[in-house]
Specification:
By secondary structure, the protein is α/β, with parallel strands linked by helices. The protein has a 6-stranded mixed beta sheet, sandwiched between helices. A 3-stranded antiparallel beta sheet has the order 8-5-9. It has a two-stranded parallel ribbon with strand order 6-7.
């Protein structure tokens, strides 16, 4: 019987160890290449599906600056406007899921389009991974400062007495002012006529010039005209009063809770982005939101800093999508 020498025995044990290791490697799940400790290794792109200069662009640039400082990599803003934010959002949904292409946009990209546009090239509920809500942009209902309506109740009473003669500005079918206006009309039992404008500036001029009886816009856009005494705010659509207009009551405070409309901004990633990268990104966003300078910059633009994590944000998205779909059916809102 052959005797195993120490050298032969060592070789046999080594061979068995290698075989066992190979078997374990074959059975073990693949480790994501882009783990949190390796990300980021190159510049990050924040896609903004709107032109430069708007509220979404402001949020992206302020947040991007803070993230760049924390992550040690450049954060590049990529403005891709068009098709009511569909072009830019679709670019992110179809981007490589490596954490280097992210989306910063308003609620329309996450909820309104999903509710009103049946033929989107992407599925916001499946193709986008929400990371965090970072700001709210309260909508305010205003009238001309020379208007006889000093309260929301007075405006509603007048609109009931003259159905369909009260005009308000929107930024197109399915825009936030359009949905908020329909919610207000249904909740108050009145009929309003929506008129499309290209943006806040011409809509405000129309209100001041008497072409419109009321306006629905962000507190950021309406703020300068309110301060100048040219328009009068009557109600906030959000769940709480606006920090920039603390004296203006909400719709809910004026017995119209169903008229509530929450405008917000969030950061998201392609759905298949590895969990470690999503978790790292959430940690860095959370730290950036704690920066007093970010808070100051947001508030200077009429934005309210908030931090809502992915699970709560997903629940809010699901709730809003269902609500806006029901609204579209009831109000016969059709978006091609």
């Amino acid at each position: 019987m052959p005797v195993s020498t120490p050298t032969a025995l060592s070789r046999r044990r080594a061979a068995l160890a290698c075989a066992a290791a190979a078997a374990l490697c074959a059975l073990a799940p693949a480790v994501p290449v882009h783990a949190a400790d390796a990300w980021p290794a190159k510049p990050i792109r924040l896609v903004v599906p709107f032109p430069p200069g708007g509220g979404t662009d402001v949020v992206a640039r302020v947040l991007g600056q803070k993230l760049s400082a924390r992550l040690g990599q450049p954060v590049v803003i990529d403005n891709r406007p068009g098709a009511a934010s569909v072009i830019g959002t679709d670019a992110v949904a179809k981007a490589p899921s490596d954490g280097y292409t992210l989306l910063v946009s308003g609620s329309s990209s996450y909820t309104v389009n999903a509710a009103l546009r049946p033929r989107l090239p992407y599925n916001p509920e499946k193709d986008i991974a929400p990371i965090a809500m970072v700001a709210r942009a309260p909508l305010v209902l205003s009238v001309n400062a020379e208007s006889p309506y000093r309260t929301l109740a007075a405006l509603v009473a007048a609109a009931k007495a003259a159905p369909g003669t009260f005009n308000y500005a929107t930024f197109g079918t399915g825009s936030a002012p359009h949905l908020a206006g329909e919610l207000f009309a249904i909740s108050a039992g009145i009929k309003l006529q929506d008129v499309a404008y290209r943006g806040s500036a011409p809509a405000m001029m129309a209100l001041i010039g008497g072409e419109l009886q009321l306006s629905i816009d962000t507190a950021t856009s309406a703020g300068p005209q309110i301060k100048a005494g040219k328009i009068r705010p009557l109600a906030i659509f959000g769940p709480t009063r606006a920090a920039a207009l603390p004296g203006v009551p909400t719709m809910a405070e004026q017995n119209l809770p169903d008229a509530s409309f929450d405008g917000w901004y969030a950061i998201a990633a392609p759905a298949a982005t590895p969990a470690p990268v999503q978790e790292r990104l959430l940690r860095e966003v959370t730290a950036a939101m704690a920066d007093p300078d970010l808070k100051t910059q947001f508030e200077a633009q009429g934005l309210e800093p908030v931090l809502v994590g992915p699970a709560a944000l997903r629940r809010q998205m699901d709730t809003e999508i269902a609500r806006y779909r029901a609204l579209a059916q009831r109000a016969k809102i059709v978006v091609d």
